[in-house]
Specification:
Blueprint lengths: L5 H44 L1
């Protein structure tokens, strides 16, 4: 009997795509947090200057 590798490759493919989606979401969250932090720093510097 031959072994079928279709299911193994399919699960591996879905796992990699899921991992890629999670990384994208995490990266978006990180970039948003960085932008918010930069805005807060800018506002605080502006308040100190006035």
């Amino acid at each position: 009997m031959k072994k079928r590798h279709n299911m193994v490759s399919r699960t591996r493919l879905t796992n990699t795509s899921r991992r890629r989606q999670l990384l994208k979401r995490l990266h978006q969250k990180v970039t948003i947090r960085r932008q918010q932090f930069q805005i807060c720093e800018f506002n605080s510097d502006l308040a100190e200057a006035c």
